Amino acid sequence: MRPALEHIGTTGGLSWKRYLYRSAEFAFSWHFHPEIELTLITAGTGTRYAGDGIEPYDPGQLTLLGAGVPHAFVSAAPGDNEAVVIHFRADFLGPGLFDVPEFAAVGGLLDAAGRGLELPAPDDLVRRIVALTEQPGAGGTLGLLDVLVRLADGAPGRPLASAGYRSPDRPDSRHRMDVVFGYLHERYGEPIALDDVAAVAHLSPAAFSRFFRRATGRTFTAYLTELRVGAACRLLSESDRAVADIAASCGFGNLSNFNRRFRELKAMTPREYRAAFA
Predict the structure, then answer these.
(1) By the 8 A CB rule, do 161 and 266 touch?
(2) Can you tell me the distance from the alpha carbon of 201 to that of 213, in angstroms, rounded to the nearest whole number?
């Protein structure tokens, strides 16, 4: 199923949008938008879809979704369901703000949100986020900036989508990693050897393995598996192709290996994953 583009707009008097969303039921709505989204669940339980990640949610859960990340929040049952939802563009206070040294950590946080993040939400931060729904004008905008700074300075978030959904990189190695990621994303459906990718990066296999692990936090083999499973997730959710056909097109030599790797990463079978999007 393809996500729908949602028009967000802004709240009157602000360059961003905030609201307290209350409903007897959060219905499935698979969508995306160019705005970054910060969602705090304040009541109710259910399932959160973010990129190719599917996980349960509970009250107190805080999610940061980068621009363009498809997502949906679906309540488990009718009742009291409530969330604080904040939408803003990366340049809502002007271009380049999060590139200056004092806000560079916020820029890094927003970059990391390209895979979706679940972030720690201590009580003080929860109160500040809830207060954003009522603060007017400049006070509200400064309040949002304060929340973003606190999130960036706090404990790191946990990525929600697989590595294949957004290529992780670091500024000091961006060009080399861009070349490597471009190579992998173009050829993940083919057999790929470590020596081949090392040659693309102009490194020996041993040096490339060390470089890749420093840059991504995972081994080359683990990343390639995540990339292939992420691609399979998109095909499972957006097409009715046979599972075996999807496995083969995503670079898995046999179906049993695909099923095993898929379950390791997603804690469900490919058929169960597809059923969750039905």
Answers:
(1) no
(2) 14
Q: How many residues does the chain have?
A: 278
pLDDT in tens, 144-176: 999 999 999 998 899 999 876 654 444 445 567
Neighbour order of strands in the sheet with 62-65: 17-23, 81-88, 36-43, 62-65, 117-119, 158-159
**pLDDT tens-digit readout, 82-131:** 999 999 998 898 888 898 999 999 999 999 999 999 999 999 999 999 99
Answer yes or no: are the C-beta atoms of 23 and 79 closer than 8 Å. no
Structure tokens at 165: 């959904």
Q: Whole-angstrom Cα distance, residue 193 to residue 195?
A: 5
Q: What is the 3-state secondary structure (H, E, C) of 65-96?
A: ECCCCCEEEEECCCCCEEEEEEEECCCCCCCC
Torsion, Cα of 244, 246, 247, 250 (10° steps): 160
- Alpha carbons 166 and 223: distance in angstroms, whole number: 11
Encode 87-124 in three state secondary structure: EECCCCCCCCHHHCHHHHHHHHHHHHHHHCEEECCCHH
> What's the predicted TM-score (pTM) here?
0.70
State the Cα–Cα distance between residues 260 and 268, nearest whole angstrom.
Answer: 10
DSSP single-letter state for residue 2? P
What φ, ψ does residue 154 adopt, rounded to 5°? -85, -165
